[in-house]
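[[Encoded backbone]]
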Amino acid sequence: MRTQRFRPRQGTPRLRRAGLAVAAVLLGSSVLAACGSGDDGKVSLNWYINPDAQETVATIAENCSTDDYDISVQLLPNNATEQRTQLARRLAAKDSSTDLMNLDPIFVPEFASAGWLEPFTGELADRAIDDDVLEGAAATATWEDEVVVVPQWANTQVLWYRKSLAEKAGLDMTQPVTWKQIIEAADQNDGTVGVQANKYEGYVVWLNALVTGAGGDLVSDTEQGRDAKVDVDSDAGRAAAEVIQQLADSGAAQNDLSVSNEGTSLGRLLEGPSTEDNGSFMVNWTFVYKNMEDGEANGTLVKGAMKDLGWARYPATVEGEESRPPIGGIQVGVGAYSDHKEMAQEAALCVTNPDAQEALAVEAGLFPSRGSVYEAEALKEAYPEDLLALFRESVDSAGPRPQSAFYSQISGALQSVWHPPTSVSPDTTPKESASFLSDVLDGRRLL
């Protein structure tokens, strides 16, 4: 087997060809998924990916293929829950053609507990999670003291804002700011605060960040499964509810608050061509910078607007207490029923290596899970250095959502009680959600 090393390919023509290759793969996915080897006798490893950065991922798959195997890309649905469902159905049926798979970190414990992931052991485990992997990313890659996936890219949220709005409000953005401060600043200066508060996973991301930022947890002792300790009825839970209530009751709430998501909140960030159109503060993922930059380049964003774009650490829930930014991203796992587990694990290490992570960051805005990649010259050319430092710091100090095999039930139960945000009260919501979640985990109530 020849040594694998991913080398980013330069120029759009190659990427366009890779995109066509993805399209061809998708058209023939039902055939490919059933294949274990090609006409040339080489093994075909199926890699089920989420739809992000398809062209870049196709190039990574091509470069990580070897003389012994080819990596064939198969596309999963857009929605993370649907991605989970499709993979779970395959693995529950002991599908041997599911060799590699992209997993949202929240689904890793469930898949590992079910025995659907082939653990990395020995030298492979050491390569998967070494000292270069940032702490926040590494925390979501293990289950019951085993390395069960390899971090590919790590997502985090920061506070994006319009500099002119912060200046008008008199905020010193070089210092940590609280949710209370930015809500009041926006309310008093005709601005808004963008969040993700629809009834979906993004709302739980916000809730978890608020609770962990106040020093608490939604759930603890998650290794106990259904007997996990429900902690949301706490001072931290009430502090989170106070923030949500403050925003919902203020003039800073965007008019679509209860159905807001990453895209809808983004549209208000740099609203308008002048400082009279105040725009917003917004918490959102790392993709924002590239989105805004591309928008100014193609004319969908007014020219010069990027000069007014600022970024800062995720807001603190409680003054004086360090925030715990959200963490997401993608982990690459190997199916436990694959006929080619050894090859698939070597491939997983290749498609997540530093060169591949550099390409994903530069070309698609999907940020590295490895600290060394943030020092790459290509990243420094593509992003401001202080923004890179902020992303890295936020990933490393992130507050992961509960690592539980029953995360889907936990998330669904919390959404049921905490939504809509206009109904949240510190006096009642944490207590009611704790009771409902306990009943759901115990099997006494259904979602």
The chain has 19 helices and twelve strands.
